[in-house]
Amino acid sequence: MPPSYPANGAPRRASPVSEGVRITTAFKRALVSQCHPSMLFAVLLPFLIALVGAILLLWLFWTPLTDWLRLEAGQWETVNDVDAWLVSIGLFSLKIWLVPVLAAAILLPVSGILGLTIAAIFVMPLVLRHVGKREYAGLAQLGRNATAVSVWNAIWVSVVFALGWLFTLPFWLIPPMALILSVFWWAFAFSRMLRVDAIVEHARPEERRRLIKERNGGFWIIGFILALINLIPPAWIILPVYSALVYAHYGLQALQDLRAQDPLPRPDVLSRLPP
């Protein structure tokens, strides 16, 4: 059901129940779309990019990174104290497994965000063509500079994600911050990257800004759900494309509702409007 707006044009907040229905519907539609042969084939591109990226990162940076971490860990007084205590009671050396875990926690997310970036830039147009023809055929494509907007958005989100992930790694030593930070940063990556790509081809700039503002909570909730699914390793194979499908269904439906409430001008008027 389209959201209603008061006379002054200010959006009314959707109720949690109606927003929950919209989000659930997006996930259900995305699951159906994911089972289509073309979308199953689309899974291969970001997965292979992420896999190759992970192999290259581990091959090129594993040894220097673990050597550096081992040197740094030797200067952490808390780590040294805990390591000495564990060894003294006959358990294990903390440093033996801490360094490889930290190295993997640094390198593997880089390959993951690379796969998501590839999905956002190259796979999302395929996703939009697929769902657009089948379920949103009447939705006009009025986006401006879609490719440039998508690429720029993917770059800044990837950079912030990588830096944020790296600088918050020390907090992983405080339970349960490892789980909380992992979910937060992946929710950030999903929501900030895919909410734009989902509507950039169809929505005019002012429509895009309005939807991002009005549906910000929904975009973030979807991001958190996908981030939780991301904790399950087998999901990594399909998640870049499936997440694109979820955001495409949610974003295009939101745009369709918006235009149903505020119809576009006639085509002859619309053609004279500035970009």
Mind explaining what this structure looks like?
With 275 residues, the protein is mostly helical. Helices cover 75% and strands 0% of the residues. The chain has eleven helices and no strands.
Backbone CA Rg = 22 Å
Instruction: Count the DSSP helices.
Output: 11
The tally of beta strands, per DSSP, is 0
**Helix proportion range:** over 70%
The best one-word shape is elongated
Proportion of beta-strand residues: under 5%
Termini separation (Å)?
29 Å
Pick out the low-confidence regions.
1-9, 266-275
How would a textbook summarize the main sheet?
A: none
H/E order of the elements?
HHHHHHHHHHH
* Quaternary structure annotation: single chain
Average pLDDT over all residues: 84
Structural class: mainly alpha
Transmembrane segments: 39-62, 96-128, 149-167, 173-194, 218-239
Protein name: EI24 domain-containing protein
Keywords: Membrane, Transmembrane, Transmembrane helix
Organism: Bordetella genomosp. 1
Question: What is this entry, summarized?
Answer:
With 275 residues, this protein is an all-alpha fold. Helix content is 75%, strand content 0%. α7 (177-199) packs across α10 and α9 packs antiparallel against α10 (239-261).
